[in-house]
Amino acid sequence: MTTTAAPFANPDATWNIPDRIRDAHVRSWERLAAPGEWWTGAERVSIAAEGRRASALLDGLPAPGPGPVELPEAAVFTIHKLIGDLPNVSREWYDETTQAEGMSDAHYIELMGVLTHIWSIDEFHRALAIKLEPLPDPLPGEPMRRRPEGLADHGSWPPTVLPRDLAESEADIYGGAKNTPNVRAAMSLHPDSVRWLNDMLDAYYRGGAEPGPDHEPFRVLSTAQRELVAARVSALNECFY
Amino acid sequence: MRNEVDSGVEHGEVLLRFADAAVGRAPDLAEAREAVNAAMGAHGVIDSAAVIANFQRMVRIADGCGIPLDATTEKASEPWRDTLGVNSYRSRSNTFG
Question: Model's pTM, two decimal places?
Fold first, then answer.
């Protein structure tokens, strides 16, 4: 595992990646390497590495090496399930997983935040036939193990925080909105995963999409075209939401 | 996935082919990407790749957390869920039990 001097420089790529996207990728690598609330930096990088191993299985490619530290067995199984067997994820499986050794609902949500963001960035690169960025070297430090205030059952499997129940330290995660879609609140048990989600939504989907001074020249898909592609990806994954 | 009905969306066919190839790890990914490039240019390829990657993440968050449909979507999607076959997805139970 090595860290490039200029991450995401992609010097030999066919495509000129817009700064809005490239900058979000760089910030994602910084987030990945740092210790979280429930996993160390080394464990977070190992989650990303295991995600790449799961992806290689899907692609029929040789598995790349594991991450810097060993993960609990339930975490490894979770990673492979979320990447390769999403249609069969169930409430029973979630309950069993979050009660397994080395796991909890908070570990699960932070793992999901790390895994899905790195997987998404890798998927972007695979779609464009750009070589995957080497994973970063982890930063030292211990997890803080803090659960946010205001958690309650709002219909998702993990507890979530509604905008009205946010503590001051997390007041930014929904952008000040009074209501938020369930998918945005889904990872609010780990507020930094919601912040990461906001950043990547802005880079990949939302930011600069509308006409106006913030409009990005690379946002050429119309709303109908974006919704068509989004619906197809959801259908291919058998996602009801 | 078959396209039995024309979406009516401009360049819809090449965009769907690109999404199918990227998500399905299909051997024609390069051709599918080039078809988008020919129809919409390099920005079209980058923007559609970003949308694909975005929803590869969102579906995992949604179904990995078992989130139910938002109330407005539940009502709005009711008339066509059966037609599109989405009521057969296992994750339907996250909303309707």
Answer: 0.94
